[in-house]
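Anyone have tokens for Universal stress protein? Sequence:
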Amino acid sequence: MTGPITAGVDGTEESLAALDWAAREAVRRGRPLRVVHAWQYQPDAAPDVAGREAQEQWVRDAAEAAVRGVADRHQGLEVTTDVVEGPAVETLLGAAADAELLALGSRGHGPLVGFLLGSVGQQVIAETTRPVVLVRAGDEASGEAAGREIVVGQHGDPEDSADVLRFAFETAAARGATVRAVRAWTLPPVFAYSPASLKLLDDAGGLEPYERTALSDAVQPWRDRFPDVPVVEHVEIGSAGQVLLSVAGRAQLMVVGRRARRTAVGARIGSVAHGVLHHAGCPVAVVPHS
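Reply: yep, here.
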């Protein structure tokens, strides 16, 4: 997809960090930047912004001030601003549908706690069909310095993680960064073995060589497509979330996949994406599987 890089803003420090991140990414990818601010009329607001027109003007002024700062820092960047009256989740889902990716702010309480994902961000991530990048206040361009990697989680067969790997390699190519492709594995219970699976493992020479081959097979098409992107293939025993977080210190961006599941209280993201979002110390991209 060749849509704009879109940032959702609401005037908070976190959303302004997401806007700065999105602007840098738009410059790197040669894409326009779209800034979306969703708002709803608050009849019990302070007297100086009690009316609908006054509230809308206040929102527009705040959005335009943020955009002016970005435009000053990135001369020549094409920027559009949309101030939309309506629920935040629905507005952001609509904006994401036409975007290359959507950047959102996420509250963070230090490097150990990581992200605190609000209800709006969680719903957008669970329901959108486009990549969403969560950025904390304080995440700056210095975190994208040379030597920092794009860390991406891979699982299953090559087609299972094609969308996630594509996003990681495209991002690395735009930044001149290395991709670290991570595949975690665990010992299966004895009753999970079958004659067919035992033969596959025997042919591969054991469990870990089997996992290394599976990762190489998944990554190879993207190595071929992006020959200038350096790649590190990382296979480690452990839970996927724990293994990814163990290498998060190397990352300028963490990329994980997402398969949302429906529950009685709405859509929920998987445990790996949830854990990484809450504990990684860098921006996290959540890419829906096709």
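Residues 52-73 form the longest helix (22 residues).
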